[in-house]
Design a protein that fits this description.
With about 140 residues, the chain is α+β, with helices and mostly antiparallel strands. The protein is about 35% helix and about 10% strand. α1 crosses α3.
Length: about 140
């Protein structure tokens, strides 16, 4: 008594709807809505906006790498918000902004944008050997 194996249908099986008949669930927000951007992506956008604002005044910043890291790697008494690394042996200069320490110190997006810009200005000033006020005349006034 052989039981024959039924042949595979030539077309794929019809997907069933969910049990309540409402269809497949989609994304909560479409991609063009800011809700779909992660916190890390929106933070990178804030850093990029600040860098673009400074590059208009300081074209030599085009050679500097700007990085966003979640937390600093070393354990110190105080947690830095950013760090600048001068260029060495063919490596471009780097400015690092730490996302989590900045987010912890701010309550909303506007405060975060202001603090990110201050951190970027301070690190650029340290890298160029200038005061923050000469890098951005509006530093500390916003």
């Amino acid at each position: 008594m052989d039981s024959p194996v039924p042949p595979h249908p030539s077309e794929p099986r019809h997907r069933r709807r969910d049990r309540h008949g409402r269809g497949m669930r989609g994304p909560v927000a479409p991609p063009q809505v800011p809700l779909s951007a992660s916190r890390g992506e929106s933070f990178r956008d804030l850093v990029q906006d600040s860098v673009e604002r400074l590059e208009r005044r300081w074209p030599q910043l085009a050679d500097v790498d700007f990085l966003v890291l979640d937390v600093p790697g070393s354990l110190e008494d105080t947690v830095p918000l950013g760090r600048s690394v001068p260029s060495a042996k063919g490596q471009p200069a780097q400015i690092v902004v730490y996302r989590r320490p900045v987010e912890i110190r701010t309550k909303n997006r506007d405060e975060r944008a202001m603090l990110v810009h201050e951190v970027v200005v301070e690190q650029v000033a340290e890298l160029l050997g200038l005061s923050p006020e000469s890098v951005d005349p509006r530093y500390g006034q916003e």
